[in-house]
C-alpha cells in the first residue's frame, strides 16, 4: 500500500520540555513484580482492593442528579494511541451532555501538581516504569466523585480500561452500556502521532500531517488533511517528547498486546462496537453518528444552535 504524508513546517519554539508520559496500566501481579525491579517505584496511597472499593463508591448514582447535566450513558472509548479517541469522545460528550473523562488528562494534571506523589510519578514515568492500576483507579475515582457532587450523570471514559484487570474491576462496580473501539490503519496512526502539535499557551491540539494513503484491493483512498493552527497559535506550537517514530511504534505494540484481551472481554459480553475510521473528521463523524443512531439528535441540536 502506497503511503504519502507530509508535515507542514511551522515556526515553533524548542520541543516541549515537560515530562512525557505513557499510561501503561498493568495487572496487580505485574505491579508487584515491577516494584521489586531496579529503579524508582511509586508508593501508592491505597492498594488495588481499596482503589476498587473507592471506585465503586464514586460510581454510585448521584442522590439528586441534575436534569440539565445530561443522561445516564456509561460509554467507553478504546483505540490505539493517536487514533482520535479524545476528539470523538469530546464531541459525543457535548452532544449527549455527559462528562468526557480521559485518564491521560488526569495523569497530566497530577504530573503538573506539586507534592510527593507527583514527584514520585514523574520519576517513575521518566524511567519508563508502568503506572499501577491502583493509581489510575484512584485518580478516576476522585474524578467520578467530583462529577457526582456536581450532579453529573453518566460519563464517556477515554483511556480506561486498558487491561482485563481494569475491565473486571469496572464491570464489578458499574454497568458499561457500550464500548466503542476505534480502528485506523497503522500507516495513518503513525503519521498522525508524528504530526501532533499543542499550543503551549492555550493548550489547543493541532496536527500538521497531511495524510494521503492510496487504496489497494478495492479499499478506498484515505485522505486526512492537516488541522492547522490559527496565526495566534502558530508560533507557540510544541510537540510531545514521546511523539517520535520509535516511541510511537513501541506504544502501538504495547497497546495491541495489552488491549486486545480487553476488546475480547467486551466482545463476549455483546458490548463492543468496532468502528473503522474512513478518514478525517468530515468523513468519520457522520458515519459514527449513524453507527450510534444519533443522527436525529445531532440534527436537532444543530438546528437549534
Question: How would you sum up this structure, described in words?
Answer:
- Keywords: Kinase, Nucleotide-binding, Transferase.
- Monomer.
- Belongs to the adenylate kinase family.
- Helices cover 46% and strands 15% of the residues.
- Residues 9-46 and 62-70 have low confidence and may be disordered.
- It has a single domain, classed as Rossmann fold (3-Layer(aba) Sandwich), CATH 3.40.50.300.
- The protein is an alpha/beta fold and 305 residues long.
- The protein starts with a strand and ends with a helix.
- A hairpin with an 8-residue loop joins strand 8 (209-213) and strand 9.
Which characteristics define this entry?
5-stranded parallel sheet; 3-stranded antiparallel sheet; globular
The DSSP helix count reads 12
Query: Which architecture name does CATH use?
Result: 3-Layer(aba) Sandwich
CATH fold type: Rossmann fold
Given this structure, which CATH class is correct? Alpha Beta
Low-confidence residue ranges: 9-46, 62-70
Task: Assign an overall shape.
Answer: globular
Structural class of the helices, strands and pairings?
A: alpha/beta
Helix content percent band? 40-55%
Global Rg: 20 Å
Number of strands: 11
Instruction: Give the DSSP E fraction (strand runs of 2 or more residues).
Output: 15-25%
Largest sheet: spatial strand order = 3-4-2-5-11
Subunit structure: Monomer.
Family: Belongs to the adenylate kinase family.
Enzyme class: transferase
Organism: Eutrema salsugineum
